[in-house]
Design brief:
This protein is mostly beta strands. Helices cover 0% and strands 53% of the residues.
């Protein structure tokens, strides 16, 4: 059984930064790629970033490239998303993903 719990969301002004963290339980964490997705009100859930099982490869949505950084610590079973230069359009609920498993989401609100 895999459980994912996100934290670190909040309210920030445009140009600010937030760091999201996802804590995973279950023995399979270190064997799989992990990802972050987000869903804004009235929109579909979209891909944000992903990182390979060993952490050596990552990829990003064009909309966040150069501003967001994904990282993982397999010893601690965590995957983080550092978000810099935040924009109002980054406002969404952010979800951690591992294969078919999802966290409950954490709200990020960026004010203009």
């Amino acid at each position: 059984q895999v459980q994912l719990v996100e934290s670190g969301g909040g309210l920030v002004q445009a140009g600010g930064s937030l760091r999201l963290s996802c804590a995973a339980s279950g023995r399979t964490f270190r064997n799989y790629a992990m990802g972050w997705f987000r869903q804004a009100p009235g929109k579909e859930r979209e891909f944000v970033a992903a990182i390979s099982w060993g952490g050596g490869t990552s990829n990003y949505a064009n909309s966040v490239k150069g501003r967001f950084t994904i990282s993982r610590d397999n010893a601690k079973n965590t995957v983080d998303l550092q978000m810099n230069s935040l924009k109002p359009e980054d406002t969404a609920v952010y979800y951690c993903n591992l294969r078919t498993h999802w966290g409950q989401g954490t709200q990020v609100t960026v004010s203009s």
